[in-house]
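Hey team,

Sharing the Leucine-rich repeat-containing protein 31 isoform X2 run so nobody has to redo it. Sequence (577 residues) first:
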Amino acid sequence: MNQIRRKRTTSDRKSTSGRFLSRQAESGGLPEDKETEEERDGAGVVHGPVDPAESVCDMGWGRVCVFVKRLGKRADSRTLSLAHCDLTATDVLELATLLPSLSLLEEMDLSWNELIGGCLRSLTSHLQNVGGLRTLRLSCCRLTADDITALGEALRCVPVLEVLDLSWNAGIGGSALQGIVGKLHPTLRELYLVACQLTETDATILGGIVSVLPRLCVLDVSCNPLLAHTQTEAEDGSMSKTEPGKGGVWGLGGLVPSLSHTPSLTTLRLHDCGLTTQSLSLLGGSFHCLRSLCQLDLSCNKGVAGGLSLLSPHLALLSHLGGLDLHLCCLTHTDLQALIQALPSLTELTELDLSSNKEVGGVVSDLVSALPLSQIKLLPLNGCSLNQESLSALALAMPYLWCIDVSWSKMVGGHLALLLEALQPSVTQELRLSSCDLTTDDLLHLAVVCKRGVLSSLRVLDLSYNGGVGEEGWCGLLGAGGLGSLEELDLSLRPLTSNPSPLTWLPTLLSAFPHLPALTRLSLQRWTLTAQEREQVNHALRKRKVLLELDPVPFASSANQEGLEEERCELEGLLFV
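Structure output:
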């Protein structure tokens, strides 16, 4: 996962002046803090004797301000957000000495600082100074088992902690979680352990953790593909993988039963956790204890294919379920029929994601008939092998959907009008039609809909990878107006486009900018623009914060390379223009 991190030189981050100010604060505060009482009286600031405790408090807060400002952040007595600050062990040690001056702190975010892994104990040993802390985020800090142990020892000092995020720390996997077992207070409401390389052993440990968290509302253990792996014990005592149902221990067997102690759970995310059909059976059996569940994410678990019938009968117990995510699960026709039978009982369902399941294209009609259409807001069907019958059935749901995504469906090309005519004014906020083989006529139909004001609330329009649209189609759409709320517009071509594609409709695009006041992102990748055309686009957007995505400027000779690099950074879309 790419990190977008603020780049600073060592001299910038650890500047002599910054350290000097810090030392000044430690020795008695900044120069202005050392004004004599008489000088303050003369200025009309202080009347009467100065409270020593108050003076010390002011000095401490001054140190906090200097420290936070040096990292490019703004000081706040209740929220300390130092994510993406390239913190080092030295910074953590200095921060620990500042905690006594942050007694009102409620939220601390040190995420995405990979250099602080292994030195968290220097900070946690001072957490008693921020006993009112409610949110602690330490994602992607390369935490070690010792860090987790130190954190567990300090958690008794933060009795009102409600949110703990330890995601993206691979060092947590492999029993390191044992360090916080029994240490979390019942006040915890949200626990995030995304991409921590958790194993089936950790699933059992996690079960012990959540079993004493009756107020837990959100549990996210996504992107831990080994969490539900089934293992069996060999004759030599070692553990090896086994086929489901052949004497193995279900990976989730140590976690799911403990969910009966979390009656307040509203969100359970098990995205890409290596779930199997047996996992679905086990999970379904726990639904009678999860009556408050509103969001269930089981996506990207291809091992559940063919076993959804083990889960579907239990879905009726989730009377408050509003969102169900099963995208990229290789669902079979039998799976989908089992789900369709359960849908009428989900009376509060508003979001159903079955995208990237090819068999869905053949059951759209049955699916739409089973859904409570008047309340469905999200039904993405991208990558679902839609056919013409599917499009006709989907048109029945179009008037209610906030987000419409039929990307990667070639059948949409030439039949877009069938969907567009069903739209209702000011409902649709996202329209994604990427790689749909759209034609010029399709875009002209879209232009007509825009002119009628039907898409006046549209925020995202994705028309990428539709190279078959002619100049007339692009000009017709961009000149139609009616997109005053549009924030993101993607008109890119396919990455493998070999022939140059001149932007012949550039004048129409430039004329459309004043009618797109909310635009924040424009992608024109793979379109061929001359240097003059790039400058025209740049000039038109110069005073607006629009992220412009263009292909890199072609490589030039070494003599011009330095100047070209500056132009490339400005025009390629790496910077806001």
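The first strand starts at residue 79 and ends at 81.

Ping me if you want the raw files.
A.
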